[in-house]
C-alpha cells in the first residue's frame, strides 16, 4: 500500500480529536443534540485550521447508524465518509467546478432522496472561486433546499463570497490554532508513531506552522523523511534554511560591539546557507521582545523564545533604549520589504543604521580631521559636508525619482504665483579659533533654547494633507533638499537654534507649498517634536533662513508619508483631487500657528 501523509492518516475522526476550535465544536454538538441543524453553513478561516475536517465530522454525525450526533467510526456510513466513498456526501472543489453549468447539474440531482444515510451533505470547498452567475444560480436552492439536504461551504476568503450567499448561511469563523493545541496534537502523533523528538525542534515547527495544523503535520512529515524518523533541531534548521538561536545571539553581539566586519561575515554565512531574511528579521524581533519583557518584569515565565541565561546575556549587551531603537528599526525594515525587490540590501542597511544609532546613543565622539591651520568662517561654510558627518543623523533615503512620494507639481503645473527667490542667511556663532585639529560634535553644545519634548501638538487630518500635496511645488522642494538642506548641519552648531535644527536634519522634505512644509522622519519621536506648538517659533525661524520666507513646519512619520502618497495617487487616478483654486481659499490662514 502506498504511503499516506501524516495529515491524512491522523485526520480527526471525532469532534473530541479536533485541535482547537472548541467554541465551534461545542456549538455544532449542541445543534445536533437539540436537532436544530441549519440548512446551510459557511466555514471560513485560514488554511489548515480544520474547515473541511469539521464539515466531514458534521456529515458523519448526521448519518451515523448509532444516531444523530454520534461518530462511531464503525458503521457503514462512518466508514464511507472516512474513506470518501459515501454516496450521500459530496465534496466539491469550487476552484475547478465553479461555472453555472456545474451548479445546475448539482441542483438537478439535489431533489433525489439519500441513498444510504439520513441526509445528503454537499461540502463545497474554496467556494469563493465560484463565478457570479454560479452564485446566482445557487441562491434559491441554498435558501430553501429539501429538508434532507445540508450545504457546508468552506473558504479562506469570505469577503469574496457575495452578500446574498452569506446571508443564507450560518457562519463559523475558524481561527488559527493555538501553539499549545498544535503541540499536544503533534506530541500525540509522535508518541503513537514512537518517534523520538527534541522539544526545541517541535517548538520551531509549531512556530513555522503559524496556527495551521495541516502545515505543522506536512512539515513534520518532511523533516522525518529527511532525518530518518527523528525530529532534531539541527535537521529542522538545515531543511528549512533557518538560523539557530545561537547564530542570532552572535549577530546581536556583533551589533553591540559595533563590529561591522563581523556582522557582515555572520550575515553572509547565513545568506550562503539560504536563510530567509524575513524570517531572520522576525526571529531577531522575537529575541528583542523577550529581552524587553524580561528587562521590565524579571519574570522568566513570560519568555517565549529565550532561556534565562540567554536573556541575561542580551540585556547585558543593550540598554532599554537600545532595544527600543533596534525593534523600531527592524519593524520599519519589515514594512519596507513589501516594496523592495532586494530585501537583503534593505536588511544590511538596517543593521548599519542600527549600529550608527546605538553609537550615537552611547555618545561615541566622532572626530573629523581638518587642515592644520585654524578654521576660518568662510572655510566652515565651504566644508559643510565635513561638518555634516559629525551630526546625529538618520535621514530617510531619497532616490532621484522618489517612488514613495506622489507626483507633486512639475514645472508645467506650477501655480501662477511666482515663488520668491531663495536667500540663505545663516548666522552662526563661530567657535574660538584653536590649533586643535578636531571639530566638536553638536552634542557638546549647550543650547539656550532647548527643544520642548512634551506639550500641545499640531494635528492635520488626511483631507488637509491631500490639499497641501495638491498645492505643493516639486521644483522648490527638490531645490531645498538638494541645495539647502545640508545647511542645517551648520545650524546644528548654533547655541540658539541648534537643537531644533538637529531634529529637522534627521528628516527630509516631503512636500513644500507656499503655505507650509511637510517633513518626513524615519523615527516617530522627531515628527512628534516638530509638531509641538512651543517648538514652532524656532522651526519657522530656521525655515526662514533656508527658503527666505516664514512658514509653519509639520512632521510626518514614514508610515503616514507612505499612506498619504497612496491616497494622493488613488485620488489622482480617479480625478478626485481638489482644485487648486478652491484649496488656496480653503487653506488661507489655516496654518497661522505662530504670529
Question: Which helices and strands appear, and what pairs or packs with what?
Answer:
Layout: H1 6-9, H2 22-33, E1 40-44, H3 51-63, H4 76-82, E2 89-93, H5 100-110, E3 120-125, H6 132-143, E4 149-155, H7 163-166, E5 170-173, H8 179-192, H9 199-209, H10 213-226, H11 233-239, H12 245-256, H13 260-272, H14 277-297, H15 308-317, H16 320-337, H17 343-362, H18 377-382, H19 384-388, H20 462-471, H21 474-484, H22 487-491, H23 498-505, E6 507-512, E7 517-521, H24 524-531, H25 536-547, E8 553-557, H26 558-573, H27 580-587
Parallel strand pairs: 1-4, 1-5, 2-3, 3-4, 7-8
Antiparallel strand pairs: 6-7
Strand % is 5-15%
Helix content: 40-55%
Low-pLDDT runs of 5+ residues are: 364-387, 389-395, 397-444
Question: Structural class per helix/strand content?
Answer: alpha/beta
Could you give a short account of the major beta sheet?
A: 5 strands, parallel
Helix tally? 27
Number of strands: 8
Quick gist of this model?
This protein is of the alpha/beta class. The protein is built from 27 helices and eight strands. The chain folds into four domains: 21-173, P-loop containing nucleotide triphosphate hydrolases (Rossmann fold, 3-Layer(aba) Sandwich); 179-239, Orthogonal Bundle (Helicase, Ruva Protein, domain 3); 245-362, Zinc Finger, Delta Prime, domain 3, CATH 1.20.272.10; 377-397 and 405-587, no CATH class.
Keywords:
595 residues; alpha/beta; Rossmann fold; Helicase, Ruva Protein, domain 3; Zinc Finger, Delta Prime, domain 3; 4 domains; 5-stranded parallel beta sheet; 3-stranded mixed beta sheet; 27 helices; 49% helix
